[in-house]
Amino acid sequence: MARIEKIKIQNFKSYKKYSLNLEKNFKHIVVYGKNGVGKTNLLDSFTFFSNTKGLRGSSLGEVFPVKEEKKLNTKVEILLSLKNDNYNLNYEIINEEGKLKKKLSLDNKNVSIQEIKSFNNFIWLSPYMDKIMYEGQTLKRNFIDKMISQNNKHFSKLIITFKKNSSERLQILKTSKDEKWLDIIENKLAENIYEVCNIRRIYAEEINQLIDSKLKKFRGVYIEFVNDLYLKNNDRNTIINLFAKKLKEQRQLDEVSKRTNFSINSDQTLFFDKTNKFNTDRCSTGEQKSCLLTIILANCWKLKNENKEFILLLDEATSHIDAENFKKLFDEVDKFDTQIWYTGTNKNLFQVIDNKGFYIHLQ
Ligand SMILES: Nc1ncnc2c1ncn2[C@@H]1O[C@H](COP(=O)(O)OP(=O)(O)O)[C@@H](O)[C@H]1O
Ligand SMILES: [Mg+2]
Questions:
Q1: Number of structural domains, the chain?
Q2: Which of 9, 10, 41 to mutate to test the pocket of ligand 1 (most atoms within 8 A of CB)?
Q3: Are β-strands 109-110 and 121-125 bridged in parallel, bridged antiparallel, or unpaired?
Q4: How is 28-91 classified by DSSP, letter by letter?
Q5: Which of 238, 269, 300 corresponds to the end of one domain?
Q6: Does any domain span residue 287?
Q7: pLDDT value for 84
Q8: Ligand with smallest separation from the Cα of 319
Q9: Which of 35, 158, 210, 314 is least surrounded, with the fewest CB atoms within 10 Å of its CB?
Q10: Ligand number with the minimum distance to the CA of 362
Q11: Does pLDDT of 196 surpass 70?
Q12: At 23, is the pLDDT very low, low, confident or very high (cuts 50, 70, 90)?
């Protein structure tokens, strides 16, 4: 049962100094107030504990308050309570020889994002993610890859290894063109691509099943990865050989274009809306939001089933979602037994939470 109990913020975007103590018994935290009061920034400040760019993809330079003199550092501290343990987490953004660096610590000892993620994840839904559902393949693939990486170190390492092997091959193509060396590296690459494709398909299968079994009241979505060379009926070695052959065929193309054209990015990612029976790209804005929510909630179920702790941040979840659907959402997330943050412009939007919520009015 993960909960934030205390927050202290210094010099984070619109916040110069802010602190807040939360009452222990509330798991639904509603942050409301007019446009621009800092609702999203508050949630954003938490996401830097589990991501390098936060909820809005901000660089470290964008975090410092624009009007402040750059003398003070950015510092965000939270007291996180998990089962019976408390964790004092903080990060500072400091200027080290002209370069901005984020330093994370746990009980005053240095800690990495990966270590923090091993005991708690921040999962969020924000308006900045809306475009995932209508803007083609890359965003969808990255979105799923990020969700997989959250919980699978091996997958993150595979992607790094792929990139390393890929640039090594491009270097060989540019210089020696050593056939033997190219064959070896292409085999490694083919294996990397296969592993990545395979993990993605296993993940999609699991999420699809969770959507079917746990989220029946929600909008039905189906995730599918498509790749002409990765056919389900073929065995691992056949597929790897096909991948290696493709890489070999494309040596000249890759050399000229200076990129690996057949890669982990050759997997097409499709989100299929079961009600409309077409891809989410063609759904209405509200339908797209519901589909996105379904996938995020299925991911939460996956974490819950694996006994992984997480805190859910729902930024503006009420926009584009009608009262009936918000009630469904509330009933669903209430099952997770973890802290859930909501933002919205008006307290009335959260009537269904009623006295179960802790309300923060930002002005
Ligand atoms: N680095 C920054 N310095 C100062 N203000 C910022 C910075 N980044 C964003 N802001 C401002 O913070 C304000 C609150 O933003 P936000 O939290 O997104 O509002 P909302 O309450 O509508 O979610 C906005 O006016 C935005 O321009
Ligand atoms: Mg906002």
A1: 2
A2: 41
A3: unpaired
A4: EEEEE-STTSSHHHHHHHHHTTT-SSTTTT--GGGTS-TTS-TTSPEEEEEEEEETTEEEEEEE
A5: 269
A6: no
A7: 80
A8: 2
A9: 35
A10: 1
A11: yes
A12: confident
Q: What integer is the mean pLDDT of 117-123?
A: 93
**Together in a domain, 81 and 188:** no
CA angle 46-50-56, nearest 5°?
A: 65
Ligand 1 in contact with 35 (CB < 6 A)?
A: yes
At residue 138, what is the residue type?
T
Residue type, 64: F
Is 300 among the domain residues?
Answer: no
Domain residues for the domain of 100 are: 3-120+309-361
In whole numbers, what is the pLDDT of the chain averaged over residues? 94
Question: Both 260 and 148 in a single domain?
Answer: yes
Same domain, 112 and 163: no
Region 262-269: what's the mean pLDDT?
A: 96
Query: Mind listing the pLDDT tens digit for each residue in 307-363?
Result: 999 999 999 988 878 888 889 899 999 999 899 999 999 999 999 998 899 999 999
pLDDT at 146 (0 to 100) = 94
**Could you identify the residue written with the tokens 């209430």?**
334
If you average pLDDT over residues 180-193, what whole number do you get? 98
Q: Ligand 1 atom 5: the closest Cα is on which residue?
A: 14
* Atom 17 of ligand 1: nearest residue by CA position: 38
Counting from 1 in the atom list of ligand 1, the atom nearest the Cα of 38 is 17
Provide the whole-model pTM.
0.94
Q: Residue 282 CB: number of other CB atoms within 10 A?
A: 11
Q: 261 and 313: one domain?
A: no
- Do both 76 and 166 map to the same domain? no
What is residue 70's predicted lDDT score, i.e. its pLDDT? 66
Let me know whether 87 and 174 are in one domain. no
Residue ending a domain, among 269, 285, 319, is: 269
Asked if 88 and 184 sit in the same domain, the reply is no
* CA-closest residue to ligand 1 atom 13: 36
Position 136 scores a pLDDT of: 84
CATH number at residue 91: 3.40.50.300
Cβ of 50 below 6 Å from ligand 1: no
Contact call for residues 339 and 311 (beta carbons, < 8 A):
yes
State the Rg of the chain over Cα: 22
User: Is residue 96 in some structural domain?
Assistant: yes
**Residue 265 resides in a domain:** yes
Residue closest by Cα to atom 7 of ligand 1: 13
41: Cβ below 6 Å to ligand 1? yes
Ligand nearest to the CA of 128: 2
Most informative mutation of 10, 12, 14, 60 for ligand 1 (most atoms within 8 A of CB): 14
Using pLDDT thresholds of 50, 70 and 90, give the confidence band for residue 160.
very high
